[in-house]
Amino acid sequence: QVQLVESGGGLVQAGGSLRLSCAASGSIFGINIMGWYRQAPGKQRELVAAITSGGSTNCADSVKGRFTISRDNAKNAVYLQMNSLKPEDTAVYYCNVHLLRMDYWGEGTLVTVSS
Q: Is the CB of residue 106 less than 8 Å from the CB of residue 45?
C-alpha cells in the first residue's frame, strides 16, 4: 500500500555532509511516525532519528547535534541532514513509516564515510 524510496547516500570524507531524502508513494494520514534507521555490518538495525506527524523529534545520542530530521507532509517526504560525519556513521540507512496497523520500510541507501 505504501512504498518508500530513499536517495542521497554516497561516499563522503569525515567531516562532510549528506542529505538523505525519502518519498512515500501515497499520502500518510492519521497518527504516524516517520524515521530513519541504520544498520552497519555486524550490527543490529538502530534508530537514528524520528519525527511525529505533529513535528516532535527524537534522535540517538550518537548523532545529537550533528543530524537533523524533518518532514514535508505535503510531499509525503522525510529528510535527514547529516553534518560532521564520522566513519562510524557508515551504514545502510533505511526510511521507516510507522502507522497504527503497519510499518513500512524503504530498501535503504548506503552512506560511506572515509577517514
A: no
Who contacts 48 (Cβ-Cβ below 8 Å, separation ≥6)? 35, 36, 37, 38, 59, 60, 63, 67, 69, 80, 93
Q: Please state the separation of Cα 54 from the chain's center in Å.
A: 17
- What is the rounded distance in angstroms from the CA atom of residue 79 to the CA atom of residue 68? 8
Cα separation, 4 vs 12, in Å, equals 24
Tally of residues, the chain: 115
Q: Model confidence over 11-55: pLDDT tens digits? A: 999 999 999 999 998 777 788 999 999 999 999 999 999 999 999
* 88's grid cell: 562510524
Q: Calculate the alpha carbon distances from 41 to 28, 49, 88 in Å.
A: 31, 19, 11
Contact at 8 Å (CB) between 4 and 95? yes
The span from the CA of 44 to the CA of 1, in Å, is 27
Distance (Å, whole) CA 97 – CA 79: 12
